């Protein structure tokens, strides 16, 4: 049995252990891992997420039990201080000695702190470990306690610095990023790309200062500012340094291994150092005179070292891909190949759209035949395909600009199919899975789902960036086999939602059990297909959340929205946003009676928070007695129809938007659908109701109403599109009836109208044809179906209270006790309360 | 936060010392779950009526430490009976307590028996 000592338990050190275990199943080698930090290896790539959730567990690569299960001895909090190559031993800080047959240095890097006078002052932090983040966060809290306008700066405008900058803004400090180079992310972006990114970052409140060399850190004990020149000082209360990395090579240096002049342990392409029994991998290793500060090459190095130790002959490739794709506060940024045309072998094609903040550049070989690199900012949806074309030297279209502009005119798509990739193309770079390996699982082993393929190959389990491409490969392979690929609900139903709608309606199926036994698989179903069935029963038979209770989604089950601490929120309907002083007083009294946190919602109604499960029927009894109804804020159903005040009061109003909004909200209240639906009615084109950001928007114009459909706010904002112009109130209702009913019948589960309209063949013109010109002959049926649902409306909270069963009360926390949940705790927030945070 | 989780350890059927008498079968919704107060602990009990089986687990979801699992939805994942948390749809096997989404945390599970119309939960 040979002993392998691994010094360093970071991502690459962990990956070495994982790959060794996969290849040896843990036999023949005794492995001891030394980690200097207190916890086992964690994901440093996603470190900035720790700022928002402080969940170190979530970043963990593997729990301690994994090491135990694999017979790996993991010694954390223990720094190795010396290597004695002659005796093949090491000693640790607590003077313990260990002998090795192979030694693997995975010591990683430390943050580079530039030697600026004053940099040692209080309030200056680095950005490298969870402990660094903890220290930074508690200092931010201290600043916020002492002043209301605290300022922070980040030294370094690379990708880590920008992520950290966003995190500090979210913590409530004004933040500037200070970069020495004339552009952001200088290794990945050119000046124009940097400008596009800068504008986007400034849009979210991050101040960007370029070409700034810091001469001095100002202040006494603690930092108060950064001096750039004699007369330029940036006042700051803290500074986070993210100015690059320095390889941790001190152990290698003291034991006489070769190190580079500017640091890094020299290795050859078999990952051995100048001592053949000592390996160095990851950010501490100097390969081809380069330090590779990305995780994918580090993982490759770990794989090569494992193979070499096991007697194999794997080597690192001669050119190492440094392509990166990331999302910086929702902004796509990607860079691949020779992005900056440093080799001067290419000509560039650039597309820039300042309105949308999109920049795309590709570098094409001078003969126009090969893609050598590129940059994408603002929209990186083409990254996977471009990256593959670059990596595999694939042929590019005759007009290379099609790669970023899309094929204009003509039939051919610019990319072709994912199946055109060579089998050797590495699709998942984190786990080094090739296109061939993925297609083989589908073609030879009969797998059909992403879940199966991911389980068998590990593809998509790292950063997840390759998910769209792996999904495409699976679907395209299935298609090539002649299998029709359709979007089925889940493992229990081989049908799309639209097909299930027709089955339920035509066969008159009224229960989930019947649907599962006649058209599904298994006896139990799951949390995906059950709510779909509940939604179908609601949309077809006007069943409410009280029916089929155990298959309702979390919120429909208790007719309230579950909140962070397991309590609920309560929203009564306030149609059109019109509310009387008497109603406001009653709502105030109820909020006070049950000690509820109260706020106005984005849909212009009143939301009560902090209601415990058992209080829901009591609160609703009071609300119903005062004349209120369920607001269906918890359902995939009509939420609100927002209105501006309209011609009844507004001197610009063209029509009575409030009256119309109330009529429409009351018409569709209780209507359940594939996803939530919101409406808006504006009294003139000033559009104060923001109706074009809603699923249906109605705007008064000279000569009638304009009706728009398919709008959305949220993560992917989309303006609603014009369905009909200058129509009457009756026509608006007729077209909205048909549009909603057509959407309810044909959309997939949890697809909003915006995504539905984007996907439906023919788009808005098709919908116009169906609901106005009756091109499918459906209108009679749609009208009838909607009329049925409108007439069947009942307030489901009234129904719930009338039918409450003291014996089987679903609103009781315990079945065997009258007590309530004593683990719920609240703390004060301004003049109200909020759930207690977990320590 | 971990002190709550430490109160809940899986009890294998062979190690049951006491069977806690919870409530009549009729108190538990068919094909659903309900929460039982076992001294100072909260145990979620699930009635898989379609299969004639019962399962029990801790009521606290280890993801965000909220007492909510009994309000989740039951189902199966490739034959494994499971519970999906109502907060973030984290799913757990009710046979082993294992997390079925690949995260590290899991839940403690407890044996259930039905005698003379009553539900009993096995404890140490």
Automatic annotation (TrEMBL), chain A:
PROSITE patterns: NIR_SIR. Residues 426-476 form the BFD-like [2Fe-2S]-binding domain. SUPFAM superfamilies: FAD/NAD(P)-binding domain, Nitrite and sulphite reductase 4Fe-4S domain-like, Nitrite/Sulfite reductase N-terminal domain-like. Keywords: 2Fe-2S, 4Fe-4S, FAD, Flavoprotein, Heme, Iron, Iron-sulfur, Metal-binding, Nitrate assimilation, Oxidoreductase. Residues 323-388 form the NADH-rubredoxin oxidoreductase C-terminal domain. Residues 563-624 form the Nitrite/Sulfite reductase ferredoxin-like domain. Its cofactor is [2Fe-2S] cluster; siroheme; [4Fe-4S] cluster; FAD. Pfam families: Fer2_BFD, NIR_SIR, NIR_SIR_ferr, Pyr_redox_2, Rubredoxin_C. Residues 3-302 form the FAD/NAD(P)-binding domain. Pathway: Nitrogen metabolism; nitrate reduction (assimilation). Gene3D superfamilies: 3.30.390.30, BFD-like [2Fe-2S]-binding domain (1.10.10.1100), FAD/NAD(P)-binding domain (3.50.50.60), Sulfite Reductase Hemoprotein, domain 1 (3.30.413.10). The keyword Flavoprotein applies. Residues 635-771 form the Nitrite/sulphite reductase 4Fe-4S domain. Belongs to the nitrite and sulfite reductase 4Fe-4S domain family. This is Nitrite reductase large subunit NirB. The lineage of its organism: Bacteria, Pseudomonadati, Bacteroidota, Flavobacteriia, Flavobacteriales. The gene is nirB.
Automatic annotation (TrEMBL), chain B:
PROSITE patterns: RIESKE. The keyword Cell wall biogenesis/degradation does not apply. It holds the Pfam family Rieske_2. Residues 20-121 form the Rieske domain. The keyword Metal-binding applies. Keywords: 2Fe-2S, Heme, Iron, Iron-sulfur, Metal-binding, Nitrate assimilation, Oxidoreductase. NCBIfam families: nirD_assim_sml. This is Nitrite reductase small subunit NirD. The gene is nirD.
């Amino acid at each position: 049995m040979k002993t392998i000592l691994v010094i360093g338990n970071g991502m690459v050190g962990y990956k070495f252990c994982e790959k060794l275990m996969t290849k040896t199943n843990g036999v023949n080698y005794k492995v001891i891992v030394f980690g200097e930090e207190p916890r086992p290896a964690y994901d440093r790539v996603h470190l900035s997420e720790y700022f928002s959730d402080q969940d170190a567990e979530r970043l963990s690569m593997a729990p301690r039990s994994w090491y135990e299960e694999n017979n790996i001895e993991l010694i954390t909090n223990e720094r190795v201080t010396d290597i004695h190559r002659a005796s093949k031993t090491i000693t640790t800080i607590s003077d313990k000695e260990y002998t090795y047959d192979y030694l693997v240095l995975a010591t990683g890097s430390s943050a580079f702190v530039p030697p600026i006078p004053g940099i040692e002052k209080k309030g200056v932090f680095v950005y490298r470990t969870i402990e660094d983040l903890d220290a930074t966060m508690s200092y931010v809290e201290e600043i916020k306690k002492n002043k209301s306008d605290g300022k922070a700066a980040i030294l370094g405008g690379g990708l880590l610095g920008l992520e950290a900058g966003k995190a500090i803004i979210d913590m409530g400090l004004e933040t500037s990023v200070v970069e020495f180079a004339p552009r952001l992310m200088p290794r990945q972006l050119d000046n124009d790309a940097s400008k596009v990114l800068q504008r986007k970052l400034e849009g979210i409140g991050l101040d960007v200062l370029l070409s700034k060399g810091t001469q001095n850190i100002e202040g006494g004990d603690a930092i108060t500012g950064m001096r750039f020149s004699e007369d330029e000082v940036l006042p700051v209360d803290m500074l986070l340094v993210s100015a690059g990395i320095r390889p941790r090579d001190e152990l290698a240096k003291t034991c006489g291994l070769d190190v580079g002049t500017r640091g890094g342990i020299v290795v050859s392409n078999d990952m051995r150092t100048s001592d053949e029994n000592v390996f160095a991998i990851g950010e501490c290793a100097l390969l081809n005179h380069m330090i590779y500060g990305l995780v994918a090459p580090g993982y490759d190095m770990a794989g090569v070292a494992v193979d070499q130790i096991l007697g194999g002959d794997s080597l690192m490739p001669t050119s190492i891909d440094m392509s990166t794709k990331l999302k910086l506060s929702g902004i796509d940024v990607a860079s691949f190949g020779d992005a900056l045309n440093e080799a001067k072998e290419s000509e560039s094609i650039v597309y820039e759209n300042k309105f949308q903040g999109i920049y795309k550049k590709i570098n094409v070989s001078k003969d126009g035949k090969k893609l050598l690199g590129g940059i994408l900012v603002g929209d990186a949806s083409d990254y996977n395909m471009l990256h593959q074309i670059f990596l595999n030297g694939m042929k590019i279209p005759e007009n290379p600009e099609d790669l970023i502009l899309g094929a204009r005119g003509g039939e051919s798509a610019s990319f072709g199919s994912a199946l055109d990739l060579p089998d050797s193309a590495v699709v998942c770079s984190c786990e080094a899975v090739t296109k061939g390996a993925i297609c083989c699982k589908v073609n030879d082993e009969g797998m059909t789902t992403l879940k199966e393929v991911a389980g068998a190959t590990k593809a998509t389990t790292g950063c997840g960036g390759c998910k769209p491409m792996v999904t495409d490969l699976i679907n395209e392979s299935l298609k090539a086999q002649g299998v029709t690929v359709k979007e089925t609900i889940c493992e229990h139903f081989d049908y799309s939602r639209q097909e299930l709608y027709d089955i339920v309606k035509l066969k008159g199926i009224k229960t989930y059990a019947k649907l599962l036994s006649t058209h599904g698989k298994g006896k139990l179903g799951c949390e995906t297909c059950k709510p779909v069935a509940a939604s179908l029963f609601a949309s077809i038979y006007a069943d409410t959340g009280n029916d089929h209770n155990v298959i309702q989604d979390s919120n429909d089950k208790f007719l309230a929205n579950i909140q962070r601490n397991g309590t609920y929120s309560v929203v009564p309907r306030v149609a059109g946003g019109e509310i009387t002083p008497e109603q406001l007083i009653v709502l105030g009294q109820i909020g006070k009676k049950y000690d509820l946190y109260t706020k106005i919602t984005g849909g212009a109604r009143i939301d009560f928070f902090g209601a415990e499960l058992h209080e829901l029927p009591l609160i609703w009894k009071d609300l119903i007695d005062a004349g209120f109804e369920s607001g269906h804020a918890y359902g995939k159903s009509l939420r609100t129809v927002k209105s501006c005040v309209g011609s009844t009061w507004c001197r610009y109003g063209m029509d009575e938007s409030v009256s119309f909004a109330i009529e429409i909200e009351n018409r569709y209240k209780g209507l359940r659908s594939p996803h939530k639906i919101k409406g808006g009615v504006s009294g003139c084109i000033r559009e104060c109701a923001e109706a074009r950001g809603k699923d249906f928007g109605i705007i008064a114009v000279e000569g009638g109403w304009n009706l728009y459909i398919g709008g959305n706010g949220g993560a992917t904002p989309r303006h609603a599109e014009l369905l009909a112009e200058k129509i009457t109130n009756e026509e608006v209702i007729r077209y909205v009836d048909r549009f909603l009913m057509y959407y309810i019948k044909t959309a997939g589960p949890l697809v909003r109208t915006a995504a539905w309209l984007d996907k439906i063949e023919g788009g808005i013109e098709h919908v116009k044809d169906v609901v106005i010109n009756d091109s499918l002959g459906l209108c009679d049926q749609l009208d009838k179906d909607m009329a049925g649902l409108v007439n069947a409306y009942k307030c489901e909270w009234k129904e719930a209270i009338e039918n409450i069963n003291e014996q089987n009360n679903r609103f009781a926390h315990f079945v065997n006790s009258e007590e309530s949940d004593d683990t719920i705790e609240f703390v004060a927030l301004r003049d109200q309360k909020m759930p207690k945070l977990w320590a | 936060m971990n002190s709550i989780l430490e109160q809940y350890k899986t009890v294998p059927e062979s190690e049951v010392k006491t069977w806690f008498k919870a409530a009549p079968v009729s108190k538990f919704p068919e094909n659903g779950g309900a929460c039982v107060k076992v001294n100072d602990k909260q145990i979620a009990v699930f009635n898989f009526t379609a299969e004639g089986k019962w399962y029990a687990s801790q009521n606290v979801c280890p993801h965000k430490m909220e007492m909510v699992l009994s309000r989740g939805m039951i189902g199966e994942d490739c034959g494994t009976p499971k519970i999906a948390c109502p907060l973030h749809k984290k799913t757990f096997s009710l046979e082993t307590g294992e997390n079925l989404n690949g995260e590290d945390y899991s839940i403690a599970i407890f044996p259930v028996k039905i005698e003379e119309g009553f539900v009993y939960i096995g404890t140490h």
